[in-house]
């Protein structure tokens, strides 16, 4: 009987533990929302958003939110307010 309880406890823990796939899914949702917001902001400013800048900023936002920061705190931590939206209109966009 004791072994049976051990199996049940193990099964409950295994089923309720967060899985890497769930974490990746959550991270993808956060990243996608960040990317969409950045693209919209840059488009409204008629500026080109560099892919490297988008990746760096949105990876930071994902990390901050996973560290229990809210969206405003994550944005404040990840967006360099000293660096304005660059004007790269002549460069080819993706």
Question: Could you walk me through the main structural features you see in this protein, from its secondary elements to its overall organization?
Answer:
By secondary structure, this protein is mainly α. It has a domain at 23-78. Helix content is 68%, strand content 0%. The chain has helices at 2-16, 20-44, 51-66, 71-78. α2 (20-44) crosses α3 (51-66) and α3 (51-66) packs across α4 (71-78). The protein is globular.
* Basic shape: globular
Content of β-strand: under 5%
Protein structure class? mainly alpha
Sketch the major β-sheet. Answer: none
- Overall mean pLDDT stands at 77
Unreliable segments (pLDDT under 50, ≥5 consecutive)? 6-17, 87-94
Write the layout of secondary structure elements.
Elements: H1 2-16, H2 20-44, H3 51-66, H4 71-78
Helix pairs in contact: 2-3, 3-4
Task: Provide the descriptors you would attach to this structure in a database record.
94 residues; mainly alpha; 0% strand
Explain briefly what this protein structure is.
The chain has 94 residues and is an all-alpha fold. Helices cover 68% and strands 0% of the residues.
């Amino acid at each position: 009987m004791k072994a049976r309880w051990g199996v049940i406890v193990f099964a409950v823990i295994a089923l309720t533990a967060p899985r890497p796939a769930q974490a990746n899914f959550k991270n993808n949702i956060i990243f996608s929302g960040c990317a969409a917001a950045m693209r919209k902001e840059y488009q409204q400013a008629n500026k080109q958003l560099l892919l490297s800048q988008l990746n760096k900023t949105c990876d930071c936002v994902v990390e901050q939110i996973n560290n229990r920061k809210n969206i405003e705190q994550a944005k404040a931590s990840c967006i360099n307010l000293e660096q304005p939206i660059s004007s790269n209109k002549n460069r080819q966009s993706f």
